[in-house]
Design goal:
Shape: globular
CATH superfamily of the largest domain: Thiamin diphosphate (ThDP)-binding fold, Pyr/PP domains
CATH topology of the largest domain: Rossmann fold
Oligomer: single chain
CATH architecture of the largest domain: 3-Layer(aba) Sandwich
Strand content: 15-25%
Number of helices: 22
Distance between the termini: 84 Å
Largest sheet: 6 strands, parallel
Strand order of the largest sheet: 3-2-4-5-7-6
Length: about 575
């Protein structure tokens, strides 16, 4: 069989279409001009970003939302290094993603040519697979493998380097078929063992997290939890795997965990960890569940057999994707839950108490009550609204007080990367324009990728961005006061007028400094995004002393000084 001769760039774009790609993110570069030419007039929308870090974050958010690899194109050298933050996030968050990097020509290789980097060495530890395509006729093979690797087992990022002379080489080569993600399933004997361990327990806890989840898998795990009256918690930044309004949901196990929930995790006699890696954030520094041998009986379900047993020696290790294991658990005969019948209700009551207005706002002295703002957001937003955020203390207001609805209503980096929230929110709105998207961003967070507001305006992505402006890198300042009280260095910020900046980009923007102003501002932002399909920004100017729901900076400093004597 003969095949038409095509350039390497055209072969690559044709391969992307075969694998179901509809959107790609990136910053253009002369190193992959032939790919850009092939994208011209194709069915793939190429979203032009303003910085490669923003592009990579958008691709990562696409992977989270859809379960399909997010596609990102960047140029060599500086473009590739900028994009590294998104690759690292995709790796730690187990998100399918493929980064294509323009590369110097093969005839210039290994001379430290202009912007040349060996990407196998650069990305080696932060990607599932890194390769370079040296021959145009092998492009279909490499692309098929990239999709396979990115989506199978524990999902993650793949990086492919594209020498520019290879992309203009013509080849007559056949296309491959579409990829098929591969996931293991539990053995029937393992489900039987899980059931026996659950039946023998007195204080079980179901902990959800990780990747490979689908809406059906979430529904199946809910059936399993309901049938067995299990209390359900979600791992760090995976709160949307179980409806937070459900009577059996008892909270999130992550940074700033409810102390009563932490006690429940420690006191459980059986933990079914379904999906999470059980990393540092979820385990509070490996203290809630001790490594390597936990005090609790541990059942660990995870898609990567190499992850199982790598940190924790669980009593039962099950290599499985979430849909496969959830379906079998939903079909499993229920056990007698009499011993823990009241546990979920008790845990739920503790969660509701934990989510009440914190003491720092109860005297009414704060001009801007951040807790009230979250309550107003909850009342105004539809149940399927998407909340995005990056890293910083401001995110606590979303994590602790907002109740997430169905799967993929939360987009946040478990890697703790700053700069994620704005591009993730814009990507979410581009991917699903009918849904309401709200981004929580600190002032430091926003300034890391706030330039992507230009992308939001260009692609009519009507995201609402709430900037928490306390004129500092708040998390680091908090740790300074805890460890070096009163010795502030490197954390104070001089900020622009964020509302005016948003207006300069073509978005709506306004400032809120009092609680009563927020509700009307939110209503105007919602109306603006619906009517004009353009972003809106609300800048919150508030007292930086209100650093966390549990303590002010003054109180943290005083406690540290007292401890020092």
């Amino acid at each position: 069989m003969t095949h038409p001769s095509r350039s390497g760039g055209q072969i690559l774009v044709d391969a992307l279409r075969i694998h179901g790609v509809d959107t790609a993110f990136g910053v253009p570069g002369e190193s992959y001009l032939d790919v850009l030419d092939a994208l011209h007039g194709s069915a793939i929308e190429f979203v032009i970003n303003r910085q490669e870090g923003g592009a990579a974050f958008m691709a990562e958010a696409y992977g989270k939302m859809t379960g399909k690899p997010g596609i990102c194109f960047v140029t060599r050298g500086p473009g590739a290094t900028n994009a590294a933050i998104g690759v690292h996030t995709a790796y730690q968050d187990s998100t399918p993603m493929i980064l294509f990097v323009g590369q110097v020509g093969l005839d210039f290789m290994d001379r430290e040519a202009f912007q040349e980097i060996d990407y196998r060495r650069m990305y080696g530890q932060m990607a599932k697979w890194v390769a370079q395509i040296d021959r145009a006729e092998r492009i279909p093979e490499y692309i098929a493998r990239a999709f396979q690797v990115a989506t199978s087992g524990r999902p993650g990022p793949v990086v492919l380097a594209l020498p520019e002379d290879m992309l203009v080489t013509r080849a007559a080569v056949a296309n491959t078929g579409a990829y098929q993600a591969v996931q293991a399933s539990p053995a029937a004997a393992q489900i039987d063992q899980l059931r026996a361990m659950l039946a023998a327990a007195k204080r079980p806890l179901l902990l959800l997290g990780g990747a490979t989840w689908t809406a059906q898998a979430c529904a199946d795990v809910r059936r399993f939890a309901e049938a067995n009256a299990l209390p359900v918690a979600c791992a760090f930044r995976f709160q949307d795997l179980f409806d937070n309004g459900h009577r059996q949901y008892i909270g999130d196990v992550g940074i700033g965990i409810n102390p009563q929930l932490a006690a429940r995790v420690r006191q459980a006699d059986l933990i079914i960890a379904f999906g999470p890696r059980l990393g540092e954030m979820t385990t509070s520094g490996y203290t809630l569940i001790e490594a390597p041998v936990p005090r609790q009986q541990l059942i660990h379900i995870h898609p990567d057999p190499l992850e199982l047993g790598s940190v924790y020696q669980a009593a039962l290790l099950i290599a499985s994707g979430a849909p496969q294991a959830a379906a079998m658990l939903a079909a499993m005969p229920a056990v007698d839950a009499t011993a823990w019948q009241q546990t979920a209700a008790d845990g739920r009551a503790q969660l509701q108490a934990w989510q009440r207005q914190p003491p720092i706002f109860q005297d009414g002295s704060a001009a801007l009550d951040l807790w009230q703002l979250v309550q107003q957001l909850q009342a105004a937003l539809p149940a399927d609204a998407i909340i995005t955020n990056g890293a910083g203390n401001y995110a606590t207001w979303a994590h602790r007080f907002y109740q997430y609805g169905p799967m993929r209503t939360q987009l946040a980096p478990t890697s703790g990367a700053m700069g994620y929230g704005v591009p993730a929110g814009i990507a979410a709105k581009i991917i699903d324009p009918a849904r309401t998207v709200v981004t929580f961003a600190g002032d430091g967070e926003f300034m890391m990728n706030g330039q992507e507001l230009a992308t939001a305006v260009q692609y009519q992505a009507g995201v609402i961005i709430i900037v928490f402006n306390n004129s500092m890198f708040g998390t680091i300042r908090m740790h300074q006061e805890k460890n070096y009280p009163g010795r502030v260095c490197g954390t104070a910020l001089h900020n622009p007028d964020f509302a005016a900046l948003a207006q300069a980009y073509g978005a709506a923007g306004e400032v809120v400094s009092e609680t009563a102003q927020f509700g009307p501002a939110l209503a105007r932002a919602l109306a603006h995004t619906r009517e004009h399909a353009l972003p809106a920004l609300i800048e919150l100017r508030y007292d930086g002393n209100l650093i966390t729901p549990g303590a002010t900076l003054d109180a943290i400093r005083a406690a540290a000084e007292q401890a020092r004597g």
